[in-house]
Amino acid sequence: MKLFPETFLWGGAIAANQVEGAWQEDGKGLSTSDVHPQGIFGGIDQRQPASGQLKDIAIDFYHRYPQDIALFAEMGFSCLRLSIAWTRIFPRGDETTPNEAGLAYYDKIFAELEQHGIQPMVTLSHYEMPWALVSEYGGWGNRQLIGFFMNYARVFFTRYREQVKLWLTFNEINMSLHAPVTGIGIASDSSLSNIYQAIHHQLVASGLAVQACHEIIPAAKIGNMLLGGLVYPLTSRPADVWVAMQENHHWLFFGDIQVRGEYPGYMLRYFRENNIRLYITEEDDAALKHSVDFVSFSYYMSGCASADAARHQSCPANILNMIPNPHLTASEWGWQIDPLGLRVLLNLLWDRYHKPLFIVENGLGARDQLTEDHQVIDDYRISYLNDHLQQVREALEDGVNILGYTSWGPIDLVSASKGELSKRYGFIYVDRHDDGSGSLQRYRKKSFGWYQSVIASRGAILK
Fold it and tell me: What is the pTM of this model?
């Protein structure tokens, strides 16, 4: 039996804006997430007055974290990936002095995790930033944001240099091409030059954060985070193979810069041919040279690409629009299910970067049904995760260096894409619904005990 390594980190991943709630408590400021009641692709509501969206309370992790962390520990988690609400620390984003009440909250979170023997992996910016930095500074299009972010990052590195040894800079950084308001704080109809300039500023900030982390916490490891948007050629025609390679370049270049420290030639050509001009200083070039220690990514689906525009009927997924693969089935949300694609992606990234990899998001969103006796029989989720984890085990056998696996949403949370609760990922059911009703009680799903057994057996129970 092929077992996962003893050092392999098992756990789950959550985001502050999707679980915490308490959107105005203890001095927290308004964030980009707070003004997107229908998710990252919805319209903006500047909360004057407050609109009462689901994320205002979310699943109330802000007040119920001891109970939830205890449930994670019961499953056997050795790692929890979580993010920080930037506006809890700097409500506007441009302050010089942090909000102590916000830091005190995370003091308690890290103490609770330590008590249960769970190592935190902290994402500094996960689909949210202070709204004031967007409304008054123009988002990441303004070079000043590099300094504001670095002030925030240094405060966190310094405060938690003993408690946190695994860090990530920006969540799914390549999503800025698909959701610019959420990713870089600029309008969706901005020019390509403005979008890529804002992305450049964020990449510079990521490089500087890597440098600062290495200086302040020499024993820590800091990585980047990509949305793994794996694209296959629809056919074996060379033209389709070439188009698929170009589609993959659009997201891989973020990793190329954060690992290799410079813009790849294929992107420089893309900029030239699309009249995209970036302002890049010598200091920027030096900042980009600070390479991450590991590469982390999310993986939910794959898709296809074709050179034939007439065949380019997009898959109805709510994150990436790709041609459906005729050999795959799909989830309720149109996300094509491709376990082998995870092994392909792991090998691709390992061959490309030769940096340790970490799967920090993977899971199945579904409309779970709670029975009268508070059971959720989610065999479909168990099947999905079993098949994907089998491929992770195979990739380990292939020689890929994989640090760990944190499933997305180990407890039900508010969807980032749609701002809904009906799309459930968790091993733990939360009694709250899209209309805001529910008791917020937690119930273990069937998959809870299954994942507990996977962790305890180091994958021996996988079929």
Answer: 0.97
- Structure confidence by residue, pLDDT tens digits, 382-394: 999 999 999 999 9
Contact 182, 234 (CB under 8 A): no
What are the residues facing 122 on neighbouring strands? Answer: 82, 167
User: Which residues, given as ranges, of the chain have pLDDT below 50?
Assistant: none
Number of H helices, E strands in the chain: 14, 12
CA distance 108 to 91: 19
Provide CB contacts within 8 A for 255, sequence distance 6+. 224, 226, 295, 349, 352, 353
Residue whose C-alpha is closest to residue 217's, from 166, 258, 168: 166
The per-residue pLDDT for 364 is 97
SS3 4: coil
- Got the DSSP string for 102-158? HHHHHHHHHHHHHHTT-EEEEEEESS--BHHHHHTT-GGGSTHHHHHHHHHHHHHHH
For residue range 166-175, what is the model confidence (pLDDT) as tens digits?
Answer: 999 999 999 9
Residues 156-193: pLDDT tens digits? 999 999 999 999 999 999 999 999 999 999 998 999 99
The residues that are catalytic are 172, 361
Cβ–Cβ under 8 Å, residues 361 and 123: no
Q: Report helix, strand and coil shares of the chain as percent, to nearest 5.
A: 40, 15, 45
Query: Closest Cα to residue 420, out of 46, 42, 129, 123?
Result: 42
